[in-house]
Model the fold of this input.
Amino acid sequence: MAFTIKKNKSASPPDQKLGCAVWETTLACNMKCTHCGSSAGKARPDELDTGECIKLVEDLAQLGCGTVALMGGEPLVREDWVTIAGCVKDLNMDLSIVSNGLLMEKYMDRISSLEPKVVGISLDGLEKTHDSIRRKGSFKTAMNAIKLLRDADIQVTVISTVSTKNFNDLIKMKDLIIKKGVNWQIQVAMPMGNFDREHLISDEDYYAVAMFIASQRIKHPFEELPVIGAHCFGYHSKLLPDSNTWKGCTAGISSLGITSNGGVAGCLSMGNNRFIEGNVRERSIIDIWKDPNSFR
Amino acid sequence: MDKEKLVEIGEKLDVSEEDITTVNRQYRLAKIISLITGTITVFLSYAIGSYRGNAMGVKAAKEISNNYKESYPYAQPGLFLFGAAIIGSEYYSGAIEYGVYYKEK
Done:
């Protein structure tokens, strides 16, 4: 059945403030996660070079962007990632990094000096589950990364992507991280990229995860363990009686996604090239963001 | 969805019926408190606006006619806060996050 995309009347008007730019700095990755929606592994052949990245950061600063979130792939495998992150900080934007933690020990001093607002570390289950999803030994490196970051007084958000593989680990995962002084962001594995659709959680399990998040927020004070539902929990929140309802996606309104080869979309989770609004190699991100025809 | 079904689903991740009831109660409570706070704010704004609009009881000032029939805008912040309180009640827990969550220090 054909469908049409409803035009978003509130897509970025010329003076709309850009709150967050989520930037896939590289598609290269040192893991091969079974749920990876980006199909990360090898770098794209035409990724932005250092100069182009710096120009992009400068343009983001000119737009008044609040936070730049460096993601991947694995952002730390990019050799010039410190230069890019340093530029974000020099231009007074908040920096956040999402990593699998594998290179954290190597770069810990650099990360400390960059003073990121937060570092997101992926943790997808207890040891056996996590290692089966990511790679052998990756659980220990992720836990070590969390410890190193906390020891350096850097805020950490543990990011867990839920599929049928780790659904049953959630309860024990809470016990694992509750005393670590971290935030816990829970999201659902989306049917994109490498993810085997057979492992997509059912409608009922989706509800169960949402209720789990809500109940944990009541059982544990926010200072002890902030449990956060990622944006993917919003779409059907109205169906969950008396829960917080979602007010709509911020893609192209106050946030955007940038691919490693310069493509700009409202959100990287849309996973479809037809949502690319332009490329920073052809038009500056300022022009793309301010174009009234963008993100519609 | 009825409560029985919700309880059945919740049990999968150790969410008890009591937890579900508490979540619902807390959400309703936040709504009610925000409405009461908003109502009080509006009432006070109108009361203050009315008092100031009557020249704060100063007789000489009260005798000056308001030829332009301008209204006194003191209630407007109250209305704004009322709206903000309602929106705030929806977001009070910051449940939906885009990007990476962080706590403001």
Summary: The helical segments of chain B are 3-10, 17-53, 59-62, 75-91.
